[in-house]
Amino acid sequence: MDIFKTGADVQAVISNTQNGNLKQGSNDGVESNAGCSQEAAHQHTQPGLFAAGVFGMPHGVSQGETGLRAVIPKALREYECPPFLTCQASAASRGFHSTLPGYRPTPLVKLKSLARELGVGEIHVKDESSRFGLNAFKGLGGSYAIARAICEKAGLDADCVRYEDLISEEARGRAGLLTFATATAGNHGKGVAWAAGLLGHKSVVYVPRGTADSRAKAIESLGARVVVSPFNYDDTVRHCVRDAQSNGWVLIQDTAWEGYTQIPKWVMQGYTTIVSELREQLAVEAAMSAPAQPPTPTQKQVRAEAYVQEAGDETGVPGPQSPTHIFLQAGVGGMAAAVLGCYADCVGKDYPVSVIVEPDRAACMLVSAARADGKAHSAFEDERGDLRTMMAGLACGEPNPLAWEVLRDLASAYIACSDKVSARGMQVLGSPLGDDPVVVSGESGAVGIGLLWIICKSPWYSGLRRKLQLNENSVIVFVSTEGDTDPVNYRRIMDGE
Length: 497
Ligand SMILES: Cc1ncc(COP(=O)(O)O)c(C=O)c1O
Prior knowledge:
There is one protein chain. The protein is 38% helix and 13% strand. The chain is an alpha/beta fold. The strands form two sheets. A nine-stranded mixed β-sheet has the order 1-2-3-12-11-10-13-5-4, with helices on both faces. Strand 10, helix 12 (334-347) and strand 11 form a beta-alpha-beta unit. Helix 3 packs across helix 9 (262-271) and helix 10 crosses helix 11 (299-310). The structure holds pyridoxal-5'-phosphate.
């Protein structure tokens, strides 16, 4: 594998087996190598973006099926954490969530055998499948945004609002009966339907064409009216916005655009509950895995104990078990930006190497990074691209600009993956090695682990591995953002079909 510098502000990592998908005429200042297969060419290569390609995969994945594209920014900007993603904002979000019926931190699972197999130090997976019984993390964002919207209408103090306040007769009298609307690839709509119902209000949820029946039914079963639109995800959002405006519904969208930013900020703030839990769990894990009777407590242990005591309300203190790496998958980028942006605010300059993972047909963050002009860009030149991927939650062609601004300043690398990579991750987590626990992880939840597997296992990616500083000392965190939200496909993948 070779690293090629572009004339622009990015480096592209290119497998030395093919350059069939290099966009001719847009590669000023780029060296390339020839004689490559066209097999893994990507349709949507953008200027300044270079495709990596074919590699040999052990364990039954054949060459050409799992090509990766990677972009590594040469320099990052200085990060200034937006107020809605600070450590304090995260404490407020978790404070609210912990008052909701059924709240429990989702488990952080350690995969020791997998770490050994892949030659890395530690692998931790935050398993979001049990979040509020919704099989995905998304209820965190929808519920927090709905709570804040009700607070505004009912004149409640949003910073310390509790579930009981929101369902009180007084709040209901002031806010009235509201209808919350959203467009969704599935999980966000489920979260909005659940939260609206829980808080005594109504919801209408728009889903794109081709949405799995099971996903639409799951939303309906939570009390929402479901509208199946004839469009892809991005156009379904526009469809929903128009209908919400004409019907006076409160739009709870998990992406932002000009003139619509407040609610997406609350949605992202809701996701930061993950960071609060994660830091606490890493601290406990570090304290527990310390030697039984050390002669004197190490500095690390002292810090772990201090953190466990104070968890949630300090800033700028490095976590005791600081991960060296975090892999975060992106649709519109809200989850990745919320977790990375908040984590960076909590730990300061100790924040980990971060890899943003996307489906190759919907890699809007990677395209934006490759353009290197600091702006968010659509994954497609004509804005009507084909978003087909089994990673339904990540099938978004247009970035959330609020999320992009955070990732632009913090993310170390962007990698676009085929569905095969996600399938590999689902299998690795669902059928674990040795004594590792089973993690049921769906298409959008497992792609990061699939990517790590491939980067560590395939000799073609040794350069990328080095570039990302993945080695036996790496402590890597993943967020498995969903369980088997499409059970039919989950079974198919686990059966190796
Ligand atoms: C399971 C799952 N993971 C990840 C994401 C990505 O989140 P975002 O769109 O905020 O990037 C989604 C989005 O719906 C999702 O459903």
